[in-house]
Amino acid sequence: MNNNIGNGEGFFEILRRKEPVIVMSVAESSRDDVKVGSKAVVSLRSRILWSSDDAQWLCANSDRLLQQAVVADYQRQGQKSDSDRQVMGMDSDCHIKEADSGFKAREGKWREGCCLLEREGVIVFLQRKGTDPRVVVCGAGHVSIPIIRMAGLLGLHTVCIDDRPAFADHAREAGASEVICDDFASALRRIPSDMDTYYVIVTRGHQYDEECLRLICTEKVPCAYIGMMGSRRRTQIVLQRMRDAGISQDILSQVHAPIGLSIGAGTPAEIAVSIFAQIIQVKNGNEMNCVFPDEVVSAALAWEPAGERFILATIVRRKGSAPRDVGTMMLVRGDGTIAGTIGGGCAEAEIIRQAQVMLLNLHPAACLHHVSLTDDGAADSGMVCGGTLDVLMEEI
């Protein structure tokens, strides 16, 4: 099924990259020339990075499919007018199919990075893989140290900026992924910014807070999060100065100031907890990026060289109450070994059995498997959730 393009990377090797891509998979098809399970991976600039051997239709239509994702990106960033569709060259016969936990046409955004698009009798499942979250900490003072340590516990890439060499060394000792010892403006301009970048402004003085906030609001938006430490009075003064400098209220309304959830935090460690509680709240409410679990990608990269065959199972549609969201995936080997999970219980057991049956064939056909969580068997096992799942099952 593999059709390596460019530098010869495989499907899972591309997913391991730290860059955004869009995965397109045919989930349903009424056409003889378009097969369920055909697949392509494209960059955000619509360059085909990888495709299966039978993905000619997907590759030919990748531009139109990608337009949908680009429009969703733009609209998520606040450009929600109907003219956005015309600007992107949207065709009236290529429309968004609304699905539970999927793309919502009226909102113009993706939910959890997944959507279903329908065209010419073919339903395509799109997943947008974003970059790994990056926390940029402006300042390396006593509050920053527990912030850096907590980011490490959460597995977040952390960049710390401070213009004082001794404090920069403290940030390194605390475990920052990167430390930039330079003035704040120069350092911030060296850091790439996107919808997976979280800015934490905790400098040693409000003149530096203002410098960082002004540059972030003028050169680094859109981003995932902006938070600034300080008293309510002090932060309101800074925000007013930003307004006076011509920064729009739409942008300033996204700034969390004072930073962190209001939990009565007092010590540096408690402040760090309040900040990351807020960042986690924002991150998990981010409806743009689908998660490709490291466990799944790592297992696939380990199993493939060993000649192990496996089925990739991905939830593409969910209705009612189901344990996991659209975009959740797992791998299944012929012996029933799995990597990842689609929620456990009878639904997962059914998918494992189906995968084992598929792997009895040398070249199994991909299929969309329907799982009911309301039938008698589910009730007997005490696993009733009251919903249904459609799971795309394919050998990559």
Summarize the structure.
The protein contains 14 helices and 17 strands.
Protein architecture, described:
This protein is of the alpha/beta class and about 400 residues long. It folds into three domains: about 10-130, no CATH class; about 135-285, NAD(P)-binding Rossmann-like Domain (Rossmann fold, 3-Layer(aba) Sandwich); about 295-395, no CATH class. Helices cover about 35% and strands about 25% of the residues. It has 14 helices and 17 strands. The strands form three sheets. Strands 3-2-1-6-5-4 form a six-stranded antiparallel β-sheet. Strands 9-8-7-10-11-12 form a six-stranded parallel β-sheet, with helices on both faces. The termini are close together. The model is unreliable at about 75-110 and about 380-385 (pLDDT under 50).
Kindly list the characteristics that best describe this protein:
Rossmann fold; 17 strands; 396 residues; six-stranded antiparallel β-sheet; 14 helices; six-stranded parallel β-sheet; alpha/beta
Major β-sheet strand ordering: 3-2-1-6-5-4
The helix tally amounts to 14
The CATH architecture name of the largest domain reads 3-Layer(aba) Sandwich
CA-based gyration radius? 23 Å
Q: How many β-strand stretches?
A: 17
What does the main sheet amount to? Answer: 6 strands, antiparallel
What name does the CATH topology of the largest domain carry?
Rossmann fold
Q: What fraction strand?
A: 15-25%
Structural class: alpha/beta
Show unreliable segments. 73-111, 378-384
